[in-house]
Amino acid sequence: MQHLENNVRKSKQNNVLPFIPEGDFYFAKGVEAFRRRKFDRALKWLQKAVEQVPKDPLYQCQMSIVYTEIGAYHEANQLLTNVLQFTGDEYTDCYYLLANNYAHLGLLNDAKKYAVSYLDKEPEGEFSEEAKSLLDLIDIDEDEDWDLEEEDELLIYQETVFYHMENMEWDKALPLIEEMITLFPEHTPVNHDYAQALFFSGFQEKAIQLELDLLRDEPNSLVSHANLAIFYNEMEQKAEREKYLQALQNVYPIQEQQKLRIAVTLARTGNFQEANKRFRALLKGIVKNHPSYYRWYSVSLYQAGALSSALALWKEGCGRHPKLAKEEGLWKH
Length: 333
Fold this sequence. Notes:
It is a single chain. This protein is mostly helical. Among the domains are: 2-138, Serine Threonine Protein Phosphatase 5, Tetratricopeptide repeat, CATH 1.25.40.10; 253-333, Serine Threonine Protein Phosphatase 5, Tetratricopeptide repeat, CATH 1.25.40. Helices cover 73% and strands 0% of the residues. The chain contains 19 helices and no strands. The two termini are 43 Å apart. Mean pLDDT is 84; it is low at 1-20.
């Protein structure tokens, strides 16, 4: 910040005031937006600060706090883990912030581990009282440790798979799903994710057969119909696509994630007007942590001719989920 002030001072002497963007400037704007609870704007400024100075731990820690505030705990934890790796555990506050995020995710063993690590390193630290309170709340019964550990492990897999699939990182999602199927064979809903990851990894016939088998066992499965509609659309088999789309068009689920799935399916199969109706009916506060909401809603708006609305939503999505910015090709969908 001192460097920026010196530049401004010299410029005033020459009656010229150039704008010199620096990490500290962007960071200050981000903190200001955060204090005003303008979280999307805060993320935008902090992302710029991180781009200017990628190895500044303070910028990334503050960005993680914004993500925590909006409930994007996975993104927050990625930043915090990154900070611990490149600072050699110098930023010990990261341990408490990780503990807090894992507690919100319901991963209590991980929350306990990071809270204990924080107190070991900072027994009188800024967050020591909060860490102690968190440990008191967890209060894990030793007799239930094994069950809880297994449940925590499943939740970690689910959260990680969700993240990779929402970002269409199929090469990362597929091996994790295969591990889940081996470790948790009773957790059958993951088979739908497996079919989708298989399809977009190039195993199309295997994916379709798996989903058809699942549909045979559960004929009213919304997920099976949605996946098969998308698969056949990608393969340009219109008659088959329409058969599975028809099963969705008069379905109006109660759960927001299921509503989102139908909206996304309609968008991906070119039914943009109907998709926009479904997207508008969603509770944004619940689905805003899904990149697919911003990805396919903005595409639907764009294809339906609502260009300014599409661009505004896309910009908002890129602020909340920076990886979306690399997907410009979707606008040509």
